[in-house]
Amino acid sequence: MKIKVLFTALIASFGIFGAYAQKGVDNGTQYGSGEDSVRCIQNLSLYVPYAKAGNYKDAYEYWEMAYKECPAANKDIYLYGVRIVAWELSNEKDPAKRDQLIDKLMGVYDQRVKYFGNDPRYGTDWIVARKAQDYIQYKGENTDPKVLKDWLKPVLEQFGEKTDALAVSLYMFASHRLLMADPENVKTQYIDDYLRSSAILDAQLAAAKAANNEKETANLTTFKTGIEGGFAASGAADCETLQNMYAEKVEQNKEDMQFLQETLALLKRSRCTDTDVYIAASRYVHVNNPTAESAVGLGKQAVRDKDYETAIKYFEEAANLEQDVNAKADDYYMIALLMQEQNNYSRSRQYALKTLEENPNYGKAYILIGTLYASTVKSVYPNDAVLAKAVYNTALDKFERARQVDPESAEEANKLIGIYRAYLPSTEDIFMHPDLEKGKPFTVGGWINERTTIR
Fold first, then answer.
1. What is the rounded CA–CA span in Å between residue 62 and residue 48?
2. For the domain that residue 394 is a member of, what is the CATH number?
């Protein structure tokens, strides 16, 4: 109450200037002039204590007058304005009125851009990014990606490599949503958007690392990983497209280890590890700084050349360098396949089992072992056709295990089960081999040396 009395007295004392009163919004000044400037200062002083205490109801009237009459007074008008309008939204249930309030909130951001967009730290790009973020939060499923992109595109064009990272990320969010709605017509634009956004974040990451700014590096890496993950999963990132996009870039950046490693990671996420560009990037990385990805790339090149011994060497190296257990499992599985290709069944099984040590739910490894067993039944019991048929029980054990642990392998496992059940000993066969009675345990000899139950 004392504050109100004080400002009433001030207004009276400025009565002589009443004829010259003008609001800040009209004359472009910070507070306006004459009586209007006094009223602006009064409202600024009255809403802030309430807003700081979270009492947005009592702050509202004073804040709104300051917001409308002297919008250039200070940034606090917008800092608290966002919170006050968000409070209004939290108390409004009517959909139509909520939409009006969302528009009002967007207007708060727009007015901040108008009056404080040149702020060196929290300028237009930062403000528009937060505007877009709030728009997504409050619109939810009704978010219009075209609206978002129309807001953010001029920001990226204006600020380039200095664009706020959140703005870059949300720009790609909008582009991705547009791609999902119309993949046929938007694919090329989406790829262009990705290249632009990725280049901006690459430049910022390089600067953050050069400055030894670990916090900023971690923050930017999170944004970059996010847009790369979206790109890899978008469907626009088919291997032919990535080959064309990155082939020349890899040659131009063949000594840039960071670029090459990020390219390998992207191609791996996109399942494009059989491309020429993946192999080229792998070769350049491996010369200077061997990684699991570079070793895999060289291993795949050796497979292409049917140089299996060299391929096995590189996949072994990749497994030793790999930190991720699932990726390590993939490396061991590749070695298992290469051993199978050379008819080295026991070594193939050895690496399939190493695969399962890293990932017990790797269904393809069980299928591979089952296939090895099924393909060698005659060599296990070359002189007894009935016992040879019994070996199929061990193969079926593996196929059944594959479908139990790995839904993605279930279809193939079921198909193999259907095929190899037909090869089991018949009732007449078992008559001559009472040790093969259904339900009894049986130990298969030879290189398999495994216990099973007769079906």
1. 9
2. 1.25.40.10
Tell me the DSSP string of 257-298.
Answer: HHHHHHHHHHHHHTT-TTSHHHHHHHHHHHHHS--HHHHHHH
Q: What are phi and psi of 316, to 5 degrees?
A: -65, -45
Q: What share of the chain is helix, strand, coil (3-state, %, to 5)?
A: 75, 0, 20
Q: How far apart are the first and last CA of the chain?
A: 92
Structure tokens at 95: 């959909």
DSSP, residue by residue, 23-85: -HHHH--SS-BHHHHHHHHHHHHHHHHHHHTT-HHHHHHHHHHHHHH-TTS-THHHHHHHHHH
Structure tokens at 201: 């974040």
* 25-78 pLDDT per residue, tens: 777 788 767 777 888 999 999 999 999 999 999 999 999 999 999 999 999 999
Residue identified by tokens 């193999």 is 416
Residues of the domain holding 372: 333-455
- Apex CA 150: angle with CA 148 and CA 155, to 5°? 95
Q: Where are the alpha helices (DSSP H) in 53-164?
A: 56-69, 76-90, 95-116, 124-139, 145-159
What is the number of other CB atoms lying within 10 angstroms of the CB of residue 332?
26
The whole-angstrom separation of Cα 56 and Cα 419 is 72
Residue 283 falls inside a structural domain: no
Residue 109 lies in a domain: yes
Amino acid identity for residue 328 in this structure:
K
Ramachandran sector of residue 22 (left: φ over 0; alpha: ψ -120 to 50; beta: rest): beta
pLDDT in tens, 101-130: 999 999 999 999 999 999 999 999 999 999
| Alpha-carbon distances of 4 from 10, 15, 132, rounded to whole Å | 10, 17, 38
Centre a 10 Å sphere on the Cβ of residue 79 and count the other Cβ atoms it contains.
13
42: which residues sit within 8 A by CB, 6+ positions away? 3, 4, 7, 10, 62
* Any domain includes 84: yes
